[in-house]
Design goal:
By secondary structure, the chain is of the alpha/beta class. 29% of the residues lie in helices and 15% in strands. The chain contains 14 helices and 17 strands. Strands 7-8-6-5-9-1-10-16-2-17 form a 10-stranded mixed sheet, sandwiched between helices. Helix 7 runs parallel beside helix 8. The longest helix has 25 residues.
């Protein structure tokens, strides 16, 4: 299957490049007002995604690290707005109100609403060209950076096409790559075999991104490295010894920050973990000789990718950067690591905006694909309904207009079978713990500690899954004012396309 897919993929990728190239023109975008109110040509677009990062994630990150009157770097950007994130049901245009990362990433990368789990295809399973493919075909330098596996949904949607996001590789399986019919049987394989080609195999052969940095080494095989090197890529680390059985983990070597620091190629691939990159808080607690200590931070990958891309093309560059672990730690309801990943992502935002300020021709966009887990800031000393033995009815017989308020005493009522205390305090070891996590902020007295009742920041989660809440968007640089609006995520594709190519996309 892999050999056949490789031959088909080479033909399809070449055809796609020609088609994409015919749809774009040289960069002649009229600027639409930058941070200083001056009109400037847009040469570069840096698109940063905090996966799962809702408005409360931003607020909690600000309060945790900078205090109530402080600001994250993203909050310092002059233009702000909101983005609606809904998906659609498969085979229809009917809204599905809660998106996953795949359908959301396809919305901004290809400009179409699609079903959850779809990568680079519309809801009718038709392949749709991506913005990164169009930028590459038009002569822009391109980059894709993530703290997740580089084959994961958000990065994958810029440089691959798959019916299911799980079709990552290294090998093909019907279960991972083919959707199911209503009766539980697998759909017939599509005529376009790219759509069931493992994402790792696509990435290694289509040349869509000049710089690829992230995790996911285990998704790749030695022949993928050979394919990349034939295209002129400098491959950091090793995808394995071709003389050994494919996917021999002992023969694979992850890239390191030291490798990244020395990288000078026009095209560079660096995979720093066999899976997702290590959560920053966990990495900080490891011994100095731990392999995970050799992973770069997202900010370091952002800086290096910009250095590698800047000046490589007279057109400019298009770069996507994802802070993936905000979502993954929100799914786990781990508030401490969620906050740490918000900070790590915000450090990458600073790296991008510092460059944009020096350059003067770079548009920086910061947003999210969806909100994850219903992150909440609750009043100090209070608890969520999830902890009540029987959640109180939200009724007020005296005034029905007040029925959105809870009748529970402010001291809270906790179910001892489900909650034993503050989550990052003494109850942290209880897997059934639904209690708030508490954190000190710069506004608290110096003797206040995380996990104590005295800490001022109390955080809870509504669920372990995505929600349908709108997400914030921040922008800086020429054309940034276009994003100061309430918009749908497909609008982001149109606006970024206009920034790069100076006109609206066809169709």
């Amino acid at each position: 299957m892999r050999q056949k897919a490789m031959k088909v993929l080479a033909v399809v990728a070449a055809a796609s490049a020609v088609a994409a190239g015919s749809a774009v023109t040289a960069n002649s975008a009229p600027a639409h007002g930058d941070h200083g109110g001056n009109d400037r040509e847009i040469r570069n677009v840096i698109y940063l995604l905090g996966d799962g990062m809702g408005r409360t994630h931003v607020t909690a990150g600000r309060e945790r690290f900078y205090g109530a009157q402080g600001k994250l770097n993203m909050e310092r950007l002059p233009y702000t707005g909101a983005v609606a994130t809904y998906a659609v049901e498969k085979g229809t245009d009917q809204p599905s109100l809660v998106t996953d990362s795949a359908s959301s990433a396809t919305a901004w990368s290809s400009g179409v609403k699609t079903y959850n789990a779809a990568i680079g295809v519309d809801s009718y399973e038709k392949r749709r060209v991506t913005l990164m493919e169009q930028a590459k075909a038009a002569g822009f330098a391109t980059g894709n950076v993530s703290t997740a596996e580089i084959t994961d949904a958000t990065p994958a949607a810029q440089f691959s096409h798959a019916l299911l996001r799980g079709c990552q590789g290294p090998t093909y399986s019907d279960a991972a790559c083919l959707p199911k019919n209503a009766d539980g049987s697998y759909e017939k394989a599509p005529a376009d075999k790219t759509l069931i080609t493992p994402i790792a195999e696509q990435i290694a052969r289509n040349g869509t991104a000049d710089v690829v940095l992230g995790g996911g080494l285990a998704r790749f095989e030695p022949d993928d490295q050979k394919a990349l090197q034939k295209q002129g890529y400098q491959v950091l680390g090793s995808f394995g010894d071709p003389k050994l059985p494919a996917q021999n983990a002992d023969s694979q070597k992850v890239a390191t920050k030291a490798d990244l620091d020395k990288a000078r190629g026009r095209k560079v691939v660096g995979l720093f973990n066999r899976g997702n990159l290590t959560v920053e808080q966990a990495k900080a607690g490891l011994p100095a000789n731990a392999p995970q200590k050799q992973e770069p931070t997202l900010a370091e990958m952002a800086k290096k990718s910009i250095d590698l891309l800047d000046g490589r093309s007279r057109k400019g560059f298009f770069l996507q950067i994802e802070g993936a672990q905000i979502d993954k730690r929100s799914h786990a309801n781990d508030a401490a690591q969620t906050l740490g990943e918000v900070k790590a992502f915000d450090d990458a935002v600073k790296a991008a905006t510092d460059f944009a300020k020096r350059d003067g021709h770079t548009l920086v966009i910061v947003t999210a694909d969806h909100e994850c887990a219903g992150f909440n800031i609750v009043e100090k000393g209070t608890y969520t309904n999830a902890e009540a033995v029987a959640p109180p009815a939200n009724t007020d017989a005296g005034n029905p207009a007040n029925n959105s308020g809870t009748s529970r005493p402010t001291s809270g009522a906790k179910d001892p079978a489900r909650s034993t205390g503050i989550a990052n305090g003494t109850g942290a070891g209880d897997v059934k713990n639904f209690a708030p996590a508490t954190f000190r902020t710069p506004d608290d007295p110096k003797n206040v500690k995380d996990g104590s009742p005295e800490a001022s920041l109390w955080l809870t989660y509504l669920s372990g899954n995505h929600t349908g809440a709108d997400v914030p968007i921040f922008a800086y640089g020429p054309g940034a004012d276009r994003f100061a609006a309430s918009q749908i995520n497909t609008d982001l594709y149109k606006k970024m396309y206009g920034s790069l190519f100076g006109r609206s996309p066809r169709g």
